[in-house]
Amino acid sequence: QVQLVESGGGLVQPGGSLRLSCAASGSGVSIRRMGWYRQAPGKQRELVATITSGGITNYADSVKDRFTISRDNAKNTVILQMNSLKPEDTAVYYCNVLSALNAMDYWGKGTLVTVSA
Q: Is the pLDDT of residue 88 over 80?
């Protein structure tokens, strides 16, 4: 089992920045990939960004050049730095982890990001 604790959401004005953090813990945690997804009201959950244990990143086109994902393998932590935020970035952001031990996906409870003037 993997437990995920997210932090860093909140209210920010358009053009502002926020930093999301997610820490994974559990017995014998071994993570292949970490990432962030988001779900806006009335929409399906979508990929924001992922990063593998080797540092390979993948971004949704809508956030490229504005968001940066990074991870600390030793601490099993993934960070999403979000800059130049837009109202359409408003959503609940979910941390996701793909376990290297059992190939299962684990999800955090989500943190709300609201971009509004």
A: yes
H or E segment and range at residue 70: strand 67-72
Residues 28-79: tens digit of each pLDDT: 788 899 999 999 999 999 999 999 999 999 999 999 999 999 999 889 999 9
CA dist 54 to 32, 33, 43, Å?
A: 9, 9, 31
Q: How does DSSP classify residue 44? A: -
Beta bridge mates, 104: none
Rounded to 5°, angle at Cα 51 from 112 and 92: 10
Q: CA of 29: how far to CAs of 24, 74, 97, in Å?
A: 8, 11, 10
Q: By CB neighbour count within 10 A (0-12 exposed, 13-18 middle, 19+ buried), where does 69 fall? A: buried
